[in-house]
Amino acid sequence: MRKLENGLSERTLAFEPGFEVHGEVVCRTFQPSYVVTRDGMLIAFCQGRLRGGRDDDPKVILTSRSSDWGATWSPARAVSGRINHYAVSAYLSERDGRERVSVLSMVDLRGTEDIYDRDYGVMREQSGIDIDAVGRDTPMVLCRFDSDDDGDTWTMETLLGDRSPLNHRYADGTLIMFNAVGQVHAISEGPYRGRYVLGGPVTVVSEGEAVTNYFRNHPQSGSAVIYSDDQGETWQVDGFITDYLANEASAVSVNRGEELLLVRRLNSRGMLEAHVPRSEVRPGPVQRIAHTSTDCGKTWSRPFLVDISGVLCHGTLARGGRRLLFSIPNGSDLPESERQHASERQRGAIYFSDDEGQTWRHKVIEPETFSYSTVGPLNESQYITLYACSSMGQEGVGCRVFEDVWLDA
Questions:
Q1: Topology of domain 12-408, CATH
Q2: What pTM was estimated for this model as a whole?
Q3: What does the pLDDT look like over 140-176, one tens digit per residue?
Q4: What distances in angstroms separate CA 269 from CA 33, 327, 392, one per listed residue?
Q5: DSSP-assigned states of every residue in 221-290
Q6: What are the residues whose beta carbons fall under 8 Å from the beta carbon of 119, sequence distance 6 or more?
Q7: Residues forming a β-bridge with 382
Q8: Cβ atoms 176, 218 nearer than 8 A
């Protein structure tokens, strides 16, 4: 266990940009995730963005390790070859009596083809993606990266057919995109005990609309939860929230595993005005949209509001014992007259609930920039948050460790 001053650590950096990987320079580190092995090894992951660092530029999955609960970190290494992937979500499983570390991520095939100038032999050799096995008209695939030796070596699989929820037709249409942006949560009790769940945004192409081979030709539809009953070997989905209103989401089990709570990011005020009748919920600046499900994501409640910062940034929902946590920037505390040139992604906060998400309190954990983040348990008495130290990852991924005593002070 790490000794903390007043229940909160100083910031360390789990990742810093500026180093070379696969012949290119990592210019941004973004969208972190983490696991803690049963031997106490903290393993972090993030996107390593190359070239210009934009969403459509090449990326790699990076990993870094800490054996002292985040006080110091190893140099970053690449888990993947160059691919155009999106958020990463890490989890642990058991394979033949050994602990496996896995990372799930969605890969844009058109963007990955462009990286290799459509030389599919080189693409297969360097990225592990066989375009003929995947299908040349397939927009996106879920890929899983596995390590059986605490991250020393890695293998990669593309999850195809019934192993993936992508590229299947459902009642709402054909699912072509699921971004694994929320941390994987293992349900520990109740009727779905042992199930892994993961919330995120979806693109569902409506029945009768032609599916193209590029996901950006279609608008994001809303949110969903994918799940696995075999420790992440296969992933499925039963239902979607296709309201076009909110997208990035994170989910956790509540009420002794009887329900899921899903907290979502509002896309924009313009979409709110266009898609929500006056009778529906209308989130204020310190509110987010939420739903519950009693059937693990097949159907969802009407939207309701939770008192969590509404800054347009992804935040992660997690469980630490009986306490729920949510990491999100609180926005600039400048006067409104000075706020127009300030990023909203300031004053990172940990929101917490002791009544299964009905009410929320918060503490500011990072006074400066705090962007795409994850939060959750670190050990038996401490929590961790990892976050981009700039709006889009230009200044590395920060790490802070905290305890209940800090939250409750």
A1: Neuraminidase (2.120.10)
A2: 0.96
A3: 999 999 999 999 999 999 999 999 999 999 999 999 9
A4: 28, 22, 21
A5: -EEEEEEESSTTSS-B---EE--SSEEEEEEEEETTTTEEEEEEEE--HHHHHHH--TTS----TT-EEE
A6: none
A7: 403
A8: yes
